[in-house]
C-alpha cells in the first residue's frame, strides 16, 4: 500500500466504534490512493479512552483532544462526539490544517454551522478537506436510488414520503440520557434522526426543501436521571427525575424547490420500529422505495414496463455492478450497517487522495441545519416557515 | 326468510355496481332480520339505467329519482351518485320517510352536510335510519384493528400515519373526468380518498382530529376534455382542454383530541400505487398496521411479548372468529373489495331490523366533512386550522 | 339477457356454497351467451337441503339426485359431493344428456375416472360438455402466469416448487371428519389439496409429470369420532375414537415431460399455514411465484431487464388487462376466493354457449388422478413410479 | 489483550477473504480469552499470495502450505481451499499439533472424512481442537431458531422445508470453473450449498436425516473452458468446451430420526435467486422460517397466542439479547454475511481458550458428508437410501 492517511478520532462511543471498524476495514476491501492508519483516539475518561484504544484498535490515546489535533502524525481529525462540541473541535482542527470528518449533525446551532462552513472554505484554499458524515447516503441501495433518479428513471418527482421511526424511549422509565437534553443534543428525534432523512431525500432527489410546516411533541416530559449512559442504551436510574428538553417526535410537511411535496416524520415513539428509516419517492415515470430494515434491497416501480408486468420490484442491491458492491462478496450476500461507514471512509480517502472535495460538504450539512432550524421554528410558531439560504 | 327491506338505488356506476353486488349477496351469507329486495334503480340516461337494471339485477328502473323515492314499495334509498347531488336526494328521501344509505362524502359542503344531519335527526324520531357508507370500516382487518385498540392492546395512542395513494391520473393526457371538477366532486383526492383515511383512523383510534396544517397541490392543471367517462376509467378525448379545479394531492399534519399526532396524505400521483390505503398506529404498548393492498391481513406488534420474540406479525384475518368472517369461507380463504359493501349492508339491515342507529351516522360523516373543510381552509391560508365542532 | 342455462346442483356444503355464489354472480359481471338459472339443489337431509335452497338461492330442492338429473328443466348438473359419489352421479348425468361440472378430484379411483372420461367422450358426440372444477386455474394471477409462460417470458422451465400447506388438523383432538376417512375421501392431503398443485403446475408449465418418488405420513393415527361435521370445521366429539385412514401429508419429487424437475408437498400439519398454496417456477430467462395467501399478486423476475434493475416484482393482478379482471373493479381493488368459481362458471358457460369443450376436461382430470395414483403407489413401494398414460 | 492465537490460513480466495475479515475483526467486538494474530497465508501463486497477504492483512505469506503448518508461530491452521485438498492439509496440521478450522464440506469423500475424524479424535487427546466451518449456524437468526426449538417453542417437529437457490450458472456460456468439476469440487450444488441446508436443519431441529430419496440433474452438460477463475465469478473463455461433471441441482425427500419429514433442494438454476437459503420448520405448537436474503429477520408463528392474534411475525434479530448481537450495534442495525464468520471465529477462540470442543466437530461434518453420500447414491440408483452411521 501507498502513502498513509493518519487519523485521530475524538470520541469513542457508538459512533466511535462504527468509525473505528470502518477505518480498520476500508483498505482491505477498496483500492485507494491512501492507506488509513489509526494513530490516536481521545476521550474525557482516562480509563475509558485507554480501554477503547485497545478495543477499537487505535495505536495511542489521550484525554486532550487539543493535543490530538496538534500532533504532527495526525492528518485527519474524525469527530464522533455529541453535537455541542463539534464546532469547537472542527474549528480547531481546520485551523491546524487537518482534514476533518465530522459526524452529523454538523452543529447544534446554525450560527456554529455557519462558522464551520467559513472555516472549511478558508482551509480548502490550502488543500484541507472537510466532510460531514451522513452515512446513510452510502447504503448501496440509496446510492443506486440516487443514480436512478439522476438518470431520469422515475421522471419528474412529485412526492417524497420519509419517516425515521424508533422506539427506544417509549418506556417512561427509560432515563434522561444526554440525547434527551437540549443543551447537549441540540434537539431530539429531529436532529438525531430527522437530519438523516432530510439529507437522504435531498441527496436522492437533487432537490432542496424550501419551506416547512411542522409539529413537534414530547410525550414523556419527566424521566428518571440516569446512573450511567452510553450510546442509545442506558442503565437506569435514580429516583430523582429531570425534564426532557427535546422533542420525542417531529413531523413536517415540506415543499421542495423542484416542485415535489413531502411528508417527514422522525420519532422515538413508534413502538416496534427499531431503526425504521423508510423513504418513498414517486415520479411521473416510476417510484422508488427504500427501507433501512432491509438495507440490501431497493424497490422500484417502472411505469415504462408492459402494462401487465408492472409492479414494485425487490432489487437485491448485492450485484457487483451496484454502488460499492464489487468490493465485497458475491451476489446475494448482504452487508450491514457498519459498511455504510466503510463506504464513507472510502469516498473520503479517495477525495483526499485525488485532491477533490468530498460530499456532503460542511455547506451541505449547514443546509440540513437550516432545514432543522426552520422545522423547529415552524413547530414553535405554528407557521409555514421558509428555509434560509446557505 | 323474513320481512323484506325494499331498496331503491340512485346511480349505477362504480358505486352502484358495488352496492348491487352487496344487496344481492348479503342475505345469502348472513342471518338477518330483514331480507333485501332490489326493487328499483334510477339514473339519468334511459338506455343506461335500463341496461344497468338488467346487468346489476334490479327489478325495475326509472330516470326520475324523485319517483323512486315516492314509491310505496321502497323502504330504503341508497344514494350512489356524485357528491353534489347527495344532499338533495337524501333530504327528499328522509322527508318521504325512507331509510337512507348515502355514499361518502356525505355532501360537497359543510352547509349541506349540516342540513342532512338535521334532517336525519328529525327522521330518526319516526324510526327512520340514516347511514353514511364508509365501506373501509367493514374490512375485517380494520374492524379487528378497532377491536384491538378498544381492548387496549396497543395502549395509549401516540402516532397515526395514514396514506391513500393512487396513480390513475399521473398521465397528463388522462381526461378531465367529473372527479376532477370541483363543482361536481367538491374536491379531488382530498374528499374522494382522503375522506376514507380520516374516517378510518378516527374510527379505529376512537379519537377525533382537532386541528390540521395542510398542503394541497394540482400537478397537472389543464387536461383534455373527455368524450365519455364512467367511474374511474375514461376514454379520452377531444383536442379541447379544460382546467382541473380540484387537488391532485392533499397532505396534512394533525393533532387528535386524545393526544395522538398524525400525518395524512391522499394523492392520485403516487406512481405504482393503485389503491394504496395504508394506516399505521403506534401506541405505548404496541402497534397496528393495515394495508388495503393486502386487505386480508393485519400487522400487529405486541410490546408485551417476550423480548426475543417481539416482531410485527402478519395476522391472516380469515379466521371464523374475526369480524364478519364466520359468514364466509374456511380459514385462509381471502375475501375481496366488494365484501366490504356486503358487510355494510349487513350492519345496516341489522340496525334497521332491530331498531337501532347504524354507524357511521350522518353526524359522524359531517364530522369528517368538517375535517375536510379545515384541511381545505388550512391549505388555502397556510395556517394551522381548528376543526369545527359538530 | 339471452337463453338460459338451467343448473341442478348436487351437494350444498362448502363447495356447494361456493358454486352457488358463483352461479348467482356470474351473469352480473360477465357478458355471456347463456344466463345461469339456479333451478334445483339436492342433498340427503330433507331439512338440510330445504334450508340450503333458501340460504344459497336455489328455486327448488330434492333429496334425490337421480330425480334432479331427470328433470327436463335442468341443463347442467353441478357435482359438489365428496369424491366417492362423483362417478355415479356424473355417469348418470351424462347418460341423461346433461352437461356436467364435477368438483375435483374427478373420482376416488383411476378406474372410476377412466369410466367417466369414456362417458364424457361419448356424450361429447351429442354436444354434451363435461368439465372438472380445478378452480385455482381461474385465479387471475395464475391465468396470467400461464399466459406469461406460454409467451416464453421465462424461457425453458427448469424447476417447479409447489406446496399446499394447511394446519386444520394439527390438534390431535380434532375429530375424524369424512375428509380423514379413505373410503369417502379417497386420500388425505394428497387428493384434497395435492391435486390442486398438480393440476395448477401442469397447467401453468404446459408440462406433465412423468414420474415421481413419494413419501406420505399420518402423524395422528387415531382421532375422536365427530358428533357433527360440515366442510372443514367440525365440532367434536365423543370419547370414542377411530382410525385415520388417509395421509396427513404427502411429499414427492417429480420429473416433468418437458425436462423440468420438481418438488411437491401437500400437508395439513404446517402450523400457521391456513391455505398456503405456493408455486415457484424457474425458467432459463426468468421466474414466477404465486402464493394464494396473496392471491391478487404475482411475482415475476425478468432476467432480461438491465442488470442493476433486476428483482422479483410484485405485480398487482388487478388491472383491467389482466385475465378476468375487466369484469370487476378498478385497478387495485382485490377480489377473493369465491371469484375463482365465478370465473370457472364464466368459462364453462362460454364453452357451452359457443359449442366448444371447456377445460380442464375429464381427461385432464384423469391425468391428475393418474399422478395421484403414482404418488400413492410410490409412497407405498418406496420406488420411483412412472405416471400411467391417459 | 491476553495471550495470542496465531493463525495460518491456507487459500485466499472467496473463503479466505471472508475468514480474514473475521480474524481481523473478532477481538474488536468480542471479549475473548485469546487474541487472534494473522501470522501467515499460503497459496499456490507467488504473486497472488503476496498480494493477498497485503490486501487481506496477513503478516507473511508462503507458497508452501506444509511450511506454514510447520511454523512454530502458528497455533491454528485455517483451511480455505477447495474440498479436494482438505483432507491432506487437515491431517498434516493435526499431526503437527495445530488446531484446525476446516471449511465445509469437510472432504470430497466419506473415506477422507472418516480419516479426518479419526485424526481429530487422536489430536483431541492432546488438547488440539478441530472444527468445521458451517458459517450459517452463526447467523443470529439461525442461532435463535435453534434456541427456540430447543426450548420447545414449536413443539414436536413435523416438517422441514429447506432450499438453497442460486442462479449463477443459468447462462450456458458461463465457463467451466472448478466448482463444476467433480475431481476438484466433489459434487455441484449438492456439496456446495446442499451441505449448508443439511447441516443447518439438523442443527436447528436436533434431528438427523436417516434416509433419503434423491434426484440430481445437470441441465447444461458442456461449457466453455475458463480463461481464469476466482471464487464464483469467472471471465470466460476459450472456444474450447469441457464436460460439466457435477450436478446443477439436487432435490431430495428425507425422513429425520425424530419423526419429521422433509424436502430439500439445492440448485444453481433458480433464476433470480442469488443466495436464497430458506428454511421452514413446522412443529405441533408453532413454526419458524428463516430466509438468508433477509438474514436479520426470523419469522415465528406461535400457536399459543390468542386465536385472533396468531400470525407469522417478523422478529428483527438485532436486539442485544439475541445471540451474538450484544457485541454489535444498537437494536435495528443490520449485520451482514461476513459477520457469520466473525461469530464462527468467536466460538472457536472461546472453545480453544477454555479448553472445550468447538462445534460443529469433524464428526458432525462427517455426518453431513454421509447424508451427501446417501443423496448421491440415491440419485444414482433411484432408490430410497439409508444414511450410514457416523
From TrEMBL, chains A, B, C, D:
Residues in the signal sequence: none
Keywords: Oxidoreductase
Protein origin, superkingdom: Bacteria
Pfam annotation, one family: GFO_IDH_MocA_C3
Residue ranges that the Swiss-Prot or TrEMBL entry lists as coiled coil: none
Residue ranges constituting the Gfo/Idh/MocA-like oxidoreductase N-terminal domain according to the UniProt record: 5-124
Location of the GFO/IDH/MocA-like oxidoreductase domain: 143-288
PANTHER family per the UniProt record, alphabetical: BCDNA.GH03377
Name under which the protein is recorded: Gfo/Idh/MocA family protein
Protein species of origin: Paractinoplanes rhizophilus
